[in-house]
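Pinned message: reference record for ABC transporter permease
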Amino acid sequence: MPALGAPFAAGLVLILLWEGLARLPGAEVLLAGPWDVALWLRENAGLMGRALAVTGAEAAAGFVLGNLAAVALALLAFALPRAERLIAALALLVFCLPLVATGPILRVLYGPGPGPQITLAALAVYYTTFVPLLVGLRAAPATWFDMVASYGRGHVAALIHVRLFAALPYLVAGLQIAAPAAFLGAMVGEFTGAERGMGVLTIRALRALDVEATWALATVAALVSIAVYAAIGRAGRRLLNAPPPVLLAPPSAARGPSPGRLLLRAGLAGAVALALWWGAMEAFDLNRFFAKRPGDVWAFLVTRPEAGAHRAELFGALGETLALAVPGYLAGLALGAALAVGLTLAPRAASLAMPVAVTLRAVPIVTTAPLIVLLMGRGPAGTIALVAVMIFFPVFVACLHGLARAPGQVLDVFDSYAAGPVQRLLHAQLPAMLPAFFASARMSLPAAMLAVTVVEWLATGRGVGALMALSASLSDYAMLWSAVVVVALATVAGHALLGAAEGRVLARYAGEQLR
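Predicted structure (tokens):
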């Protein structure tokens, strides 16, 4: 019971602060307090229960399918080492497809039913598990592999008996990060024309400027995400009772792949993706009116007489989006890492800070984006703040898990020399955190584009997010598919630059990640 005291106190403080802010003069236009939310939920309990059952089932199905796909892809990548780079690149390309654009396309392909919602939920979560799992599969001591080899066992045996055990902590982190993302993906799918669910109620509430309903929906979604996050964490603590091992991997002589090589790998993956794209469209004989082929996008942007105007419109909108996504992304990285480090130095504050951090990320951006932008204006500040909030949580969770992977034997050495917490942090915990930090930075890059395009779609009416929403409403599928391709390529290019920096750093501080 004492273990629950601090989180309960933190939750009570948050509720009181929330109620106080809601009672400020003029706040009722933007913020409904917890008492108003409770009254709305009591009056509409049946409606909310039915909507939650629909969206929860869709999010759960997407969560399971997406994470199963992530585990299968990671195991396949290690079982086939020569195909690992291609598998990772294709997984990145699919994750870079903006949900704002893929939602309407999936709605046309699937028709009525939960198909788009489940697919978008799965797409929103699989990469957030795939990337940490890849890091975890490498986080094993070299001596363990030597022992497997000494018994005459091969690559598959090492994968089963060594790598899977080492990857469990990273898998738990990925599953925790995926919980709010699955709910968001399901709600975005419902925005594209579903008949039931919390996304449908959110659309109605936003159109009617029903602040109580909007915050009630956000509160319920946040509570569900927090409950799943806590349940996964509790299960992880029961499974992961062994202390972190000492990796003792020698520094790699390589400085990591160059940006050019990473871009070349991305180009190869792109060629495979184009072949799969064209092949799928032709195999299912999909109508070219909405199912555009690579050649259609090329003609729209390059060869048609009006291609110049199309490029100017699309790249102008992309420039507006990147001007907001980049600072929001960097701010989220800094905030997440700083908060994780701060809680490591002051562990007693964790019970107070964790509920706040989980709550901020668990509130779906689709419910709060219009209200936040209304409060802060349509300028860059509101959008950058929302992107930073979207990014900081996966970075924060991953860095916390990374800091906890510092081996106890190493920390005992520092204690024997009476080293302080700062020395332990600089020389033991931060190096252990670096693989997790870069993994979170990689999987957060597409999330930054998702956040900014959702805000542009729902609130600001500018940038490539608004352009994609307008194109979908006008059935301008050539522009919609072109926007999908351009956004994905821009994200992949940023990912390649980040990968180059990661390779150089990890070659020095985490040589096991380059094995």
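Pinned by admin. Summary line: The chain has two domains: 30-245, 292-514.
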